[in-house]
Task: inverse folding
């Protein structure tokens, strides 16, 4: 009986080794779609409050540093470009280059977060945060800043998660677990990073260019 | 799980014996086998069902007298209905059918060895347990949770209860649900056995497919709503707080964008179970296979567009109320189609009134009552009268308990022989069903009457004129609970001590009946024979 | 349901009967067919089943006919509801304020009442305001319901056609006092209403205090009968010995004017033993005179 | 178990990525200059955001995320999700705008 069980156990193990790239990618895409709906809820809120308070949202936007927002956009886009290219590099067998490109993306992610931290602390220093006295009696601007903190904050958490996933990909590449033949982990990590990028593409005009 | 005396079959041990890498309890809670995970879900969701049922029992006791039979302080009653709702919805009925029966049978029914992501599957269960623990930990916070399961703002922003903990628990539970959905969709796209075309798939997997889409696309909206309440409570951002310019109705919009489709997460898999049981016990193919498939997808899609019918009296715009009422009547059409198809499946069948079939037929009746009273609530003029009364409570319980849970209980009788290789006591099953069915109708039909009389829900105390029906409903709850106890004592005893069941006790034709009971770890010892058509009874009996 | 209570309840009842009757027809039809099939085609009677895969004509029929019937239900529900949303121009306006946990009603002439008194056969428009959370303005006898949402201007209107006293309940869960958040709706003959409407309430003294007690939310938590609701009862409160916690220290005080004033204006200063803190809202809209009147009222509750 | 990992692998060239990246940067600069320099007033601002942002997202989705080279299923899934978000927006707006 124990032999039978052991055999079955091995079979189960072999089964886990079974690789279905299409399936893995499908799973990742489904996860990304569900992420889209997560942010979708916030976009619905933003749209409704902006429709209610168009002027206040414009006034809120005027407190934003658009240059930092645009710069951060370019940083993220470059990161996306690098991680996309790293897949091509890996597929063509240039592991070192691929690792370098993933490393670049991680650095852009870190740079993005640093800019974000500067920006948030600037706003808080100026007195724009939920419940601050500058926003008392201005419900529209209050909502604008609340949504700003919630949406960019949640996006920031996704950037951090993306950095973690890309770092894992980098380690797996260094250990030879993610290779020219088995690159689906890198591909899925890249997909996640691109989603983070896309959300930012929409956050830019909603907050930084809202004036 | 004492199946050790079963003669070992050639090839592989049953999943009950093969504990994988770990032994004892760890062989279960760390197993990535979809069948073992299914059993984990079965045990844990049923545990919470019994917790929720006990809370419901106490609520009914309180309602025995107008001034409260149990508590003179409404706080305790408010905690009871909040916990009853949260537990029954998030910890029982949403995960129960997909998590237990879906995990166990969907891969087998499409001829797969396992789900697409077995480790993710285990993670889903662990997240479920984590979410449950977090949600229940809120009980020991600053006060008993008292918001109702809906966490409506701004009340949830002001109450002393530990709301951040509770909503974080719900968020984690939602995450578990999303991962199950992703896993199931991928499994059905990638893991069907060769020859198992989409339109040969049995209807339970089809129902799970539709459900999974709702889980993947609607649950994140609940996630963000709960996160916003969490952020609101901790940082006071004011997004839903009217005192700071926020709009509490937008909370309701976001909440129901998930929570209405969630009703379809609860009922669609149950409809799939009915579509399995009726052909098996009528020994004939399902009537209108295509119609049932498309109505499942139609319900999933239309069901996502009717959320604001929970808000007709909230100050919704007249235009929105009109559109949502219209859409609500349209979503009734695919459900009606299913009911007609099931009834037509009985025509010229050869019907065995086994206990699972009895549950399936009572599902049709109870679900029809629930669905038709839904039409009454969907009509704008009547909704104004009946919203937030016992009528809504009764309607909901007819759909979710009379519908989803009856189908679940029926399917437990249907598949128990397959899952554990043992048969239950039939007489006990009939007695349990009869008590359950009688008590259920006495309890909830009386609530329709109370609703029309104007009894509002969530009242710890009530006006004396409502007392007689309240007492009748409470008596009904006692009969119903007696029935549930009989049903589950019978099922649990038979898991350990029941007579041996054959591989195919009912003469079913879906793939799970081709393999041994209980199934071996690998599911299929040889590649399964895929029938020409789904539910091909003539073909099966000809050979 | 009381079909004669307002001018609209009759037509709503017609919709109700139409939809319930059609639904019952569906239900009986399905159940009877099901039972007939189960008996007629039981395995003993019909051992050989027949696979019938479908029938396009039949399926089309049972898709189209229910769709049309459902749409008719929608139509009737919608048109009657449109009437419920159209307020007659000559409607009397009453401002309804809901709070945790009481109702108050303000009439056009400034009169404030704890009961919704209305003349018969006169349409009335209730403008609904909430001071805290969402409440539900629900008069079961009239089939009238609308949520009272803070920050929103919801309304409900009706046209009472029968004399009598009816219940106004809160339909939207609002916390501990939810089931007790009730008021009377009194439908009076026109002349009697006019008489009541033109009488001025006492502007000071215990009578004014009583009005404040009923309309400013006190009634939701403090009984005058001696029973415990949410907060301590007011019966026999004045001059009694109260054990309170002040700044973390437990002490016994006499419930005199000073103590009561402090408890009304700064509810968390002294926390009465066995009652939780920060439940009572700070009373911002009470004038010093109001506070004195309330205390005068409490004094009368022996 | 039914499908082996035999899908053909589409390797996207560096040139494609570089062009897409350049287009994204160009569009970002265009969008920000339109709104920061107040070209043509506020109306153009929103319009530009409404057109340019989805265009940028589409570039990322189709090229960086390889949707152009994936099966139709992926495209359908994305369309369904977008439609649902748009319907959610539309139906909620029906309430908020017309209250």
Result:
């Amino acid at each position: 009986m124990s032999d039978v069980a052991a055999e079955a156990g091995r079979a189960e193990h072999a089964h886990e080794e079974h690789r279905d790239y299409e399936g893995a990618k499908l799973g990742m895409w489904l996860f990304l779609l569900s992420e889209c709906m997560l942010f979708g809820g916030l976009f619905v809120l933003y749209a409704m409050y902006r429709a209610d308070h168009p002027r206040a949202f414009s006034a809120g936007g005027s407190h934003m540093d658009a240059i930092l927002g645009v710069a951060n956009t370019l940083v993220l886009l470059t990161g996306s470009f690098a991680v996309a290219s790293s897949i091509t590099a890996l597929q063509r067998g240039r592991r070192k280059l691929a690792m370098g490109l993933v490393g670049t993306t991680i650095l852009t992610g870190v740079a993005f977060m640093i800019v974000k931290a500067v920006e948030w602390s600037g706003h808080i220093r100026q007195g724009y945060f939920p419940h601050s006295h500058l926003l008392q009696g201005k419900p529209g601007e209050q909502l604008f800043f609340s949504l700003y903190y919630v949406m960019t904050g949640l996006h920031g958490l996704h950037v951090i998660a993306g950095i973690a996933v890309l770092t894992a990909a980098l380690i797996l590449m260094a250990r030879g677990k993610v290779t020219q033949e088995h690159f689906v982990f890198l591909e899925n990590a890249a997909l996640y990073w691109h989603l983070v990028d896309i959300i930012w593409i929409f956050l830019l005009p909603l907050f930084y260019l809202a004036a | 799980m004492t199946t050790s005396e079963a003669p070992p079959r050639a090839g592989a041990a049953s999943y009950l014996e093969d504990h994988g890498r770990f032994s004892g309890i760890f062989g279960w809670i760390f197993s990535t086998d979809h069948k073992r995970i299914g059993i984990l879900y079965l045990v844990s969701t049923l545990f919470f069902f019994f917790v929720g049922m006990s809370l419901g029992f106490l609520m009914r006791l309180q309602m025995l007298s107008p001034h409260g039979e149990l508590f003179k302080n409404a706080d305790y009653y408010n905690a009871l209905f909040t916990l009853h709702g949260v537990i029954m919805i998030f910890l029982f009925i949403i995960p129960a059918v997909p998590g237990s029966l879906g995990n166990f049978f969907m891969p087998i029914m499409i001829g797969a060895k396992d789900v697409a992501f077995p480790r993710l599957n285990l993670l889903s269960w662990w997240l479920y347990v984590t979410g449950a623990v977090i949600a229940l930990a809120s009980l020991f916070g600053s006060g008993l949770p008292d918001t109702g399961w809906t966490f409506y703002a701004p009340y949830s922003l002001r109450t002393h209860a530990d709301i951040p903990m509770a909503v974080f628990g719900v968020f984690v539970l939602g995450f578990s649900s999303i991962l199950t959905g992703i896993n199931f969709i991928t499994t059905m796209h990638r893991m069907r056995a060769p020859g198992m075309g989409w339109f040969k798939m049995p209807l339970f997997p089809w129902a799970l497919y539709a459900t999974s889409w709702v889980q993947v696309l609607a649950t994140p909206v609940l996630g963000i709503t709960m996160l916003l309440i969490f952020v609101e409570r901790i940082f006071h951002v004011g997004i839903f707080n009217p005192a700071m310019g926020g709009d509490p109705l937008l909370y309701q919009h976001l909440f129901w964008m998930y929570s209405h489709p969630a009703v379809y997460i609860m009922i669609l898999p149950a409809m799939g179970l009915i579509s399995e049981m009726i052909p098996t016990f009528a020994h004939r193919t399902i009537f209108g296979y295509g119609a049932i498939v498309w109505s499942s997808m139609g319900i999933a899609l239309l069901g996502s567009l009717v959320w604001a019918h929970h808000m007709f009296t909230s100050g919704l715009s007249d235009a929105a109320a009109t559109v949502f009422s219209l859409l609500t009547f349209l979503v009734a059409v695919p459900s009606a189609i299913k009911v007609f198809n099931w009834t037509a499946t009985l025509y010229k069948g050869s019907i065995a009134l086994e206990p699972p079939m009895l549950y399936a037929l009572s599902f049709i009746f109870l679900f029809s009552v629930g669905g038709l009273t839904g039409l009454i609530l969907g009509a704008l003029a009547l909704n104004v009268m009946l919203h937030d009364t016992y009528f809504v409570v009764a309607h909901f319980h007819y759909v979710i308990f009379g519908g989803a849970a009856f189908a679940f209980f029926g399917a437990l009788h249907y598949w128990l022989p397959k899952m554990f290789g043992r048969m239950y006591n039939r007489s006990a099953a009939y007695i349990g069903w009869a008590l359950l069915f009688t008590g259920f109708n006495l309890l909830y039909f009386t609530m329709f009457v109370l609703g029309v009389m104007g009894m509002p829900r969530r009242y710890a105390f009530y006006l004396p004129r409502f007392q007689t029906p309240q007492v009748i409903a409470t008596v009904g709850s006692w009969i119903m609970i007696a029935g549930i106890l009989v049903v589950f004592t019978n099922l649990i005893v038979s898991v350990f001590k029941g007579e041996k069941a054959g591989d195919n006790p009912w003469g079913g034709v879906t793939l799970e009946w081709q393999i041994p009971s209980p199934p071996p770890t690998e599911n299929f010892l040889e590649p399964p024979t895929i029938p020409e058509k789904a539910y091909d009874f003539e073909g099966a009996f000809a050979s | 349901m009381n079909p004669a209570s307002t001018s609209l309840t009759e037509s709503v009842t017609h919709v109700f009967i139409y939809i319930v009757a059609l639904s019952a027809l569906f239900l009986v039809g399905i159940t009877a067919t099901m039972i007939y099939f189960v008996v007629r085609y039981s395995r003993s009677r019909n051992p050989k089943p027949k696979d019938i895969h479908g029938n396009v004509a039949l399926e089309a029929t049972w898709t189209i006919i229910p769709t049309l019937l459902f749409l008719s239900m929608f139509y009737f529900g919608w048109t009657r509801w449109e009437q419920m949303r159209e307020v007659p121009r000559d409607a009397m306006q009453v401002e309804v304020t809901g709070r945790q946990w009481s109702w108050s009603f303000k009439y056009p002439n400034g009169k404030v009442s704890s009961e919704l008194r209305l003349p018969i056969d006169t349409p009335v428009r209730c403008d609904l305001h909430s001071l805290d959370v969402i409440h539900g303005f629900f008069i079961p006898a009239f089939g009238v319901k609308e949520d009272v949402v803070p920050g929103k201007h919801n309304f409900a209107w009706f046209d009472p056609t029968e004399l009598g006293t009816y219940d106004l309940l809160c339909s939207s869960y609002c916390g501990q006092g939810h089931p007790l958040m009730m008021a009377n709706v009194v439908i009076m003959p026109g002349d009697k209403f006019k008489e009541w409407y033109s009488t001025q309430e006492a502007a000071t003294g215990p009578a004014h205090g009583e009005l404040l007690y009923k309309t400013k939310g006190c009634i939701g938590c403090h009984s005058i009968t001696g029973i415990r609701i949410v907060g301590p009862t007011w019966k026999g409160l004045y001059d009694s010995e109260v054990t309170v916690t002040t700044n973390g220290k437990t002490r016994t005080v006499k419930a005199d004017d000073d103590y009561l004033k402090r408890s009304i204006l700064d509810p968390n200063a002294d926390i009465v033993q066995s009652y939780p803190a920060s439940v009572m809202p700070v009373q911002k809209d009470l004038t010093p005179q109001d506070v004195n009147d309330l205390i005068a009222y409490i004094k009368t509750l022996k | 178990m039914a499908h082996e990992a035999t899908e053909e692998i589409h390797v996207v060239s560096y040139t494609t990525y570089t062009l897409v990246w350049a287009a994204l940067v160009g569009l970002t600069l265009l969008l920000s200059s339109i709104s920061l320099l107040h070209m043509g007033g506020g109306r153009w601002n929103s319009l530009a955001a409404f057109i340019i942002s989805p265009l940028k997202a589409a570039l990322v989705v189709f090229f960086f995320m390889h949707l152009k080279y994936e099966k139709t299923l992926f495209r359908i899934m994305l369309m369904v999700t977008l439609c649902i978000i748009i319907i959610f927006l539309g139906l909620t707006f029906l309430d908020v705008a017309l209250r």
Notes: The longest helix of chain A spans residues 139-174.
